[in-house]
Amino acid sequence: MKEFIINSPLDMHLHLRDDDMLKLVAPLTSNYFSGALIMPNLLPPITTKEALFKYKQKINEACEGDDFKPHLTIFFQVDYTYEFLKNIQDEIIAVKLYPFGVTTNSETGVSSMDVEVLRPTLESMSKLGIPLCVHGETKGFVMDREKEFLPIYESLAINFPDLKIIMEHISSKESIKLFKKYDNLYATITIHHLLLTLDDLAGGMLNPYVFCKPIVKRPDDRQALLELALSAHPKVMFGSDSAPHPKNAKECHHGAAGVFTAPIVLQILTQLFEEYEKLDNLNAFVSLNAQRNYNLKVKNKTIKLVKKDFTIPASYKYKKEEVVPMFSGKTIPWSIEKN
Ligand code: NCD
Ligand code: ZN
To answer: Residue whose CA is closest, atom 11 of ligand 1?
Structure first.
């Protein structure tokens, strides 16, 4: 195989940030993707129509060309009214729920995951057909946080059977089992959870560039996720969770959680699906499943991958911002052919 075409790739979990960081990272996705689901965890988070419009405009200005559609989300609040949600519905693809303090910029997340506390907002969303994206982790032992959250996912799935619930960036084999049990549970998977385990983060020298929430886990978790992604299960979608942090916020005491992968995801996915002889499923995993699950009309975009070495840059810079991608300096066998 010397070349491979991906049609209208979609990244269903992406952090674009704000200001100069937004200007730096937005083109690295918008040049190669047809659309992306943009996370709302700015400081302060996106919770109003005004903030949403402003952010959408900044994103559009930061993206090159007009063949990329950012799908925005708002940050879950327990006091969103039915009227508010109805009024904002056409501007968003989903609402993202963060439990308090479990990841970067989640300090204003929900402090109780009790179904009765969440019910008013979730009932409105369910009636309006607005999907719910969830960062599913507790504050327990770091390797078990996702597993401990599964009963909450289960109770949400049972209590709101008409609500589409997306288990974001699943990282453990237990999550896969639950995801298969309920029709209204969907999932996204990142490339780092398909490639890495805790050993890559902390088994040798510490690698802050693969530190993220949820943390990368055991070999059997990685293997189970890989099988799910390679099979392109219809409810599973690619979501990079590319989450840029400035270099000095990664290489320091109290390093930030988040892996920056935007510029390498399509090349790595092609490499991975080729290695396991599953290239036939790649378009479903990076585009068709999301189109169907989210009822999306996509901007047509053909991305040609060619078998040509690509050395991942040491970093990407814009003005004072500098961000280091996962695998910086490594050479991978697939490149994106420039138009
Ligand atoms: C993300 C970020 O930096 O915004 N960090 C991460 O480790 N994945 C937030 C998130 O998606 O959890
Ligand atoms: Zn994220």
So the answer is: 241
Q: Is 241 known to be catalytic?
A: yes
- pLDDT category at 95 given cuts 50, 70, 90 is very high
Q: Point out the ligand 1 atom lying closest to the alpha carbon of residue 135.
A: 12
Compute the distance between CA of residue 79 and CA of residue 48 in angstroms, rounded to an integer.
12
Spell out which residues have Cβ within 5 A of ligand 2, the ion: 241
Residue 190, pLDDT score: 99
pLDDT at 183 over 80: yes
Which residue intervals of the chain are DSSP H helices? 19-30, 49-62, 82-88, 115-128, 145-159, 173-181, 192-195, 198-202, 219-230, 247-250, 265-275, 282-283, 289-293
Q: What angle do CA 287, 291, 295 make, to 5 degrees?
A: 170
Nearest CA to ligand 1 atom 9: 104
Ligand 2: centre distance to CA 300 (Å): 25
What is the number of the ligand 1 atom nearest to the C-alpha of 213?
7
**pLDDT value at 204 more than 90:** yes
* Pairing of β 316-318 and β 69-75: unpaired
* CA pair distance 11, 35, nearest whole angstrom: 7
pLDDT in tens, 33-59: 999 999 999 999 999 999 999 999 999
Ligand showing the shortest atom-to-Cα distance for residue 259: 1
The SS3 call for residue 85 is helix
**268-316 residue pLDDT tens:** 999 999 999 999 999 999 999 999 999 999 989 999 999 999 999 999 9
Distance CA 311, CA 8 (A): 24
